[in-house]
Specification:
Layout lengths: L8 E6 L3 H12 L4 E7 L2 H11 L3 E4 L8 H11 L4 E6 L4 H10 L3 E4 L4 H12 L7 H14 L18 H11 L4 H8 L3 H15 L4 H10 L18
Parallel strand pairs: 1-2, 1-3, 3-4, 4-5
Length: 238
């Protein structure tokens, strides 16, 4: 979600290893703008707690008992599309990355990240920004773009009630090329606040909670195609 208030970012922490969970909770709770409102040791409990606590961000592991992180993410996003799910896992294999992002995760981090990187990522996904290494982002966008090419039998044409305005589509295409909010604002001669407002409208219309999801939904609904993406350019951070 995009945070427009001065209230703390509420986080649901989902991790089956108690020591890791406790250490992560301690790190996040030390931040003046973040509070861990719940902890879950398996995916099923996470789904139940997300529905009850309505956190801003869900920090999600992948390999867990009862229900894994991919299935839990799908269920959480189905009931609360606006929540930002940030994967934090030891798995960097493509199948996990693709499956979690397709399930609706806003970002994907490895457990090797430093504490400050994790804190910054929580703040970023709460603002609706993407949290992906540029190399991973290019692989993901390329896979989804090819998967949803016209004639593939996949992809969903946009529904009339979900159509983006010309300006919103322009903003989405620039997001697909990896431009930051400031870069989009400069390119379109807009204020960063106006760009943020456009993203809020895009998220609402596409029923997503982050730039990552918005771009992937744009590909699925054929609002974007391969030509709109930066799959070979330099490293741009969302």
């Amino acid at each position: 979600m995009i945070d427009t208030t001065n209230s703390k970012i509420t986080v649901l922490l989902v991790e089956d290893h108690a020591v890791v969970r406790e250490g992560t909770a301690e790190l996040l709770n030390r931040q003046p703008d973040i509070v861990v409102v719940g902890e879950a040791g398996d995916g099923q409990v996470a789904v139940e707690m997300a529905a009850r606590l309505r956190p801003d961000v869900v920090l999600m592991d992948v390999a867990m008992p009862v229900l894994d992180g991919i299935a839990a993410t799908k269920l959480i996003k189905a009931h609360r599309p606006g929540v930002a799910v940030l994967a934090l896992t030891a798995h960097d294999e493509d199948q996990y990355v693709f499956a979690l992002l397709e399930a609706g995760a806003a970002g994907y981090l490895l457990k090797t990240v430093r504490g400050q990187e994790l804190v910054d990522a929580v703040r970023a996904v709460n603002r609706g920004e993407a949290v992906l290494h540029p190399t991973i982002a290019k692989k993901v966008l390329g896979r989804f773009a090819i998967k949803n090419l016209p004639g593939s039998g996949k992809g969903e044409p946009s529904h009339p009630t979900e159509r983006l305005t010309d300006r919103e589509l322009e903003v989405l295409k620039l997001a697909g090329r990896g431009l930051s909010n400031k870069e989009i604002a400069d390119k379109l001669v807009l204020s960063p606040r106006t760009v943020q407002a456009h993203f809020a409208n895009i998220f609402d219309k596409l029923e997503v909670g982050s730039r990552t999801e918005a771009v992937l939904q744009g590909l699925k609904r054929r609002l974007l195609d391969l030509g709109d993406l930066d799959l070979e350019g330099g490293e741009k951070h969302a």
